[in-house]
Amino acid sequence: MSSNATPRVAPSGATEFRDVATAHAPFPFGRLALWLIVAIVVVDFSWIVAKNENFGWPVVAQYFFDPIVLSGLYVSLGLTVVAMILGVALGLVIAIMRMSNDRLASGFASLFIWFFRGTPLLVQLIFWYNMSTLFPQLSIAIPFGPTLASWDTNSVITPMTAAIVGLALNEAAYMAEIIRGGLLSVERGQAETAEAFGMTKGRALRRIIIPQAMRSIVPPTGNQLISMIKATSLVSVIAMADLLYSVQSIYNRTFEIIPMLMVAVIWYLLITSVLNVGQSYIEAYYGRSDRRNAGVAKTAATTEEASH
User: Fold this and answer.
1) Angle at Cα 237 formed by Cα 161 and Cα 122, nearest 5°?
2) Please, are residues 116 and 131 in contact by the beta-carbon 8 Å criterion?
3) Position 2 pLDDT exceeds 50
4) Which of 10, 72, 156, 303 has its CA at 20 to 30 Å from residue 18's CA atom?
């Protein structure tokens, strides 16, 4: 008895049998050529930009760490942090009101979102900055009664106040919808189970619903944070000394417009790049359960196929 296996021969006129164990993917010549073309274009463009004297790279290097520029950078970062904290906190309240069965609460939340998402952020900032035109005095008074306290509007609504209020309220409108979408992504049975165990709606929201909704809320919140960094450049129109306003104040003296704008562009790119990396890690952290479930499902399917 011979130990050599007889090779399988295809019948005459039939399709030739092929051993899939020796099959291999064809070499991706097209993809390689595309990568080479893109690389050549990128290198060529980078060389043109680097050698173009009109960009004023020596001026960019001179002012990149200038105290005025760094001061504006700190203002932009501070505005981003404060506006995001206030926006997320207020957005959570608006989202809960939007989902409420109370028509007054849901109606107010819908009106808030409609107004602040429907008007440009730049217009809102200018409006807050010029609040004294409409209301020269800000007062606390009893309706149709005496005034308890009063302040001059210009002393209250400074460029900093107008920037924080404008950015925070605009961000709250967007965060309300993001948070509402995250809360709706949690199965309704979770809340019903919590209520069956005697939890109040508020406690169930804090302990059960919000932690599970974070997986859907955090990634778009990261996008909003990156957008907020760039949106702070709009406060330059209300004389707020942010990063863009700082470089403008320099090129108004030196007339080096393009180099100073490149300083701002590079700083914005550096900050958003760091935030992008952080967002990737956060998304990976909150996506662990999906990958774990996918791995379990794949293992179960493999085991089932092997058993058959």
Assistant:
1) 80
2) no
3) no
4) 303
Rounded to whole angstroms, the Cα distance separating 249 from 260 reads 10
User: What mean pLDDT, rounded, does the chain reach?
Assistant: 84
Q: Which of 45-54, 90-99, 138-147, 236-245 has the lowest mean pLDDT?
A: 138-147
Structure confidence at residue 279 (pLDDT): 82
**Which of the pair, 103 or 23, is modelled with greater confidence?**
103
Residue type, 221: T
Q: List the structure tokens of 187.
A: 């199965």
Q: Are 179 and 166 in contact (CB under 8 A)?
A: no
Instruction: Enter the pTM of the model.
Output: 0.78
Composition of the chain by helix, strand, coil, percent to 5: 75, 5, 20
Count of residues making up the chain = 308
Residue 276 is inside which H or E element, if any?
helix 257-286
Place of tokens 């942010």: 242
Q: Are the C-beta atoms of residues 254 and 51 closer than 8 Å to each other?
A: no
Per-residue pLDDT of 196-210, as tens digits, reads 877 877 788 778 888
Q: Nearest Cα to 122, choosing from 81, 162, 172, 78?
A: 162
1: pLDDT strictly greater than 50: no
* Whether 171 contacts 229, CB under 8 Å: no
List of residues 6+ apart from 97 with CB closer than 8 A: 105, 106, 108, 109
Query: In sequence order, which residues have a C-beta less than 8 Å from that of residue 165 and are 6 or more positions away?
Result: 128, 157
Question: What is the C-alpha to C-alpha distance for residues 47 and 177, in angstroms, rounded to an integer?
Answer: 44
